Amino acid sequence: MASSSLVKLNASSSSWIGQQSFNQRPGSSCRLPVSNRRVSVVRAAGSYTDELIKTAKTIASPGRGILAIDESNATAGKRLASIGLDNTEANRQAYRQLLLTTPGLGDYISGSILFEETLFQSTTDGKKFVDVLRDQNIVPGIKVDKGLVPLPGSNNESWCQGLDGLASRSAEYYKQGARFAKWRTVVSIPCGPSALAVKEAAWGLARYAAISQDNGLVPIVEPEILLDGDHPIERTLEVAERVWAEVFYYLAENNVVFEGILLKPSMVTPGAEHKEKATPDTIAKYTLTMLKRRVPPAVPGIMFLSGGQSEVEATLNLHGMNQSPNPWHVSFSYARALQNTVLKTWQGRPENVDAAQRALLIRAKANSLAQLGKYSAEGESEEAKKGMFVKGYTY
């Protein structure tokens, strides 16, 4: 198909090629017939279309969400250091084994995003982590981006690298058992955001999504709008609408199958340093307004990130968004908002593993109830109410 060949022609490109992305430049030796230049063709995502849609629907199943444990080795080291542990592979493996082997986890968790190290690891008993997940009907996922770097020509902003070699890496991840992928880029409101940064974020996400689908992985599309700043919630809504409009424009330009993707947006909140905090009802109202204006109903699932909110805040806000029917499955893809109490309960001690796993189930169940619109914050611990926002936080 002409559209597929055009997609693959640019599969390794990491640059934004602009409004004329599928028209040949003057003087090009590879010219399309005039009649074919502006034809809109739905991309079939190769032989994986049916599988992609099935995987996305499995993850977006009632009462379940995503456990994100895809922290890089450096970030995992920060988490371990907070409880006095060295950043060694054995310690990272022990912590992730604690999380993934929690009995009953699959009742509340439908997918887990892994770091590459974890995808290829096994438990201390020799069972592959991907098989541990499958046995609980949890879909294994994989972080595929290569992190943020400065964006030249911008207002001190970043872009996400990792498109080079993504197709071959994705094929290996699929072979290992991964069935969905994550790519995180960020937009900073205090930094503008500049038109360049928004377009780079949207184009990178779209290329990643197309390449992922071509290799059998459901892409999680994640342009995180950072909490940093003292702006009001109305400013966040304005920026979020602009970002998501750009993202869906380029997803369509790249012929991404919307039924085979998942979104991981930030909630629409005031800046973390704004003088007035918003209630869960207000956050739900603004966030759903943005989604209904920008996200097609063909998208099966919207799995929110917590972005530095406290465990209870993240759960309350999710609950608020599920008080009335939505066109999509509105759920969670939390890292710190699922792990914070778990880590502090564990403290790296084998005798605390059971208690830590119970703490994980408490948080997972709370968010499951929030996804169903049935959560109550009554009885939540003071630890779960502590905010986790860190200004200028890096992963």
TrEMBL record:
Keywords: Glycolysis, Lyase, Schiff base. Its EC number is 4.1.2.13. CDD domains: FBP_aldolase_I_a (cd00948). It is an enzyme of class 4 (lyase). It catalyses: beta-D-fructose 1,6-bisphosphate = D-glyceraldehyde 3-phosphate + dihydroxyacetone phosphate. Pathway: Carbohydrate degradation; glycolysis; D-glyceraldehyde 3-phosphate and glycerone phosphate from D-glucose: step 4/4. This is Fructose-bisphosphate aldolase. It comes from Solanum tuberosum (Potato).
